[in-house]
Design a protein that fits this description.
With 305 residues, the protein is α/β, with parallel strands linked by helices. The chain contains 10 helices and 15 strands. It has a 6-stranded parallel β-sheet with strand order 4-1-9-10-11-12, sandwiched between helices. Strand 9 (135-139), helix 4 (144-156) and strand 10 form a beta-alpha-beta unit. Helix 1 crosses helix 8, helix 6 crosses helix 7 and helix 8 packs antiparallel against helix 9. The longest helix is centred in the C-terminal third of the chain and has 15 residues, at 271-285. The relative contact order is 0.16.
Length: 305
């Protein structure tokens, strides 16, 4: 029987422009396009996990604006259980403003909207949202204290904890929380912020891995953009080479990786197989524009594998 995933984190509308290059400070760069996509790291990961075979529930706060309604309907259409979302009258969903250059690199700024108003007290008051779930998949785009309380509740209920430490909170992640994390997936920048180790290649990733493991995280997974990913499973170092694709937009690749990893883990796949499944899904997502619109199907990932 598949395990159920509880997702938490931000759900946003992405307002996106594609352009030849990023503007410098004080500069305007004219482009000929604009599009809206459902996004937010939490929403993306939930959409991915549900699309790739996971049974997913979401817990957050949203507003009663048109963006909140659109985001809720979109995740429901993918099979995500949105019944535990708290609605704040008069509030809004999160909004992310995204620029993507011709190399597929992105620059993002966002406001979390009602997502940011989910408190540790809300987590304790709605612990039943965790009931029946086996995996917590959570991102740091909501209040850090709320994330930490959710992790505490998840551990109390015997759940596996997977965290996307983005953005890394000031001062890092508390030691007691690190010891409750089963899987954490920082990218190069986040790994350097957490450990002080500049991550440039597999060798430096291995050094950062050891520091993250020493903090108490059971299995750190370091993603190195177009260089692949690094982790250690049962004492065996694993360097995942990137899948060769024609990338046009990397906006949600990290979210696709974690959503795919959680989905495959929930389906009973071995951790190393989950990593390869996630690595493939993430690579395929970079061949399409947008966040949730770039999610590959389960059949596409299996065919690429």
């Amino acid at each position: 029987m598949a395990k159920r995933i509880l997702c938490m984190g931000s759900i946003n509308i992405d307002l996106t422009m594609f352009m030849k290059r990023m503007p410098d400070v004080g500069e305007s760069v004219v482009t000929d396009n604009f599009a809206t996509f459902p996004g937010g790291k939490g929403g993306n990961q939930a959409a991915v996990a549900a699309t790739l075979g996971g049974e997913v529930r979401y817990f957050t706060k949203l507003g009663d604006d048109v963006f909140s309604a659109e985001l809720t309907a979109g995740l429901k259409a993918r099979g995500v259980d949105m019944s535990r979302v708290i609605t704040l009258p008069g509030d809004t969903a999160g909004v992310a403003m995204i620029r993507v250059d011709e190399q597929g690199r992105n620059s993002i700024s966002f406001t979390a909207g009602a997502n940011a108003k989910l408190t540790p007290e809300d987590v304790r008051a709605h612990q039943d949202a965790f009931d029946g779930c086996d995996i917590l998949l959570i991102t740091m785009e909501i209040q850090p204290a709320t994330v930490y309380e959710a992790i505490r509740v998840a551990r109390e209920k015997g759940m596996t904890v997977i965290i996307d430490p983005s953005p890394v909170p000031a001062g890092g992640i508390p030691a007691d929380i690190c010891r409750m994390i089963d899987y954490a997936k920082p990218n190069e920048t986040e790994a350097e912020t957490l450990t002080g180790v500049p991550v440039r290649d597999m060798e430096s990733a291995a050094v950062a891995y050891e520091k993250l493991a020493a903090m108490g995280i059971r299995t750190p997974i370091l993603s190195l953009s177009d260089k692949g990913a690094f982790t250690v499973l049962e004492g065996k170092p694993i360097a995942l080479a990137p899948l060769k694709v024609s990338a046009i937009d990397s906006t949600a690749a990290g979210d696709v990786f974690l959503g795919a990893f959680a989905a495959s883990l929930s389906r009973g796949m071995a951790p190393e197989a989950c990593l390869r499944f996630a690595n493939t899904a993430a690579a395929l997502s970079t061949t399409r524009k947008g966040a949730q619109s770039s999610i590959p199907s389960l059949a596409e990932v299996e065919a690429a594998l």
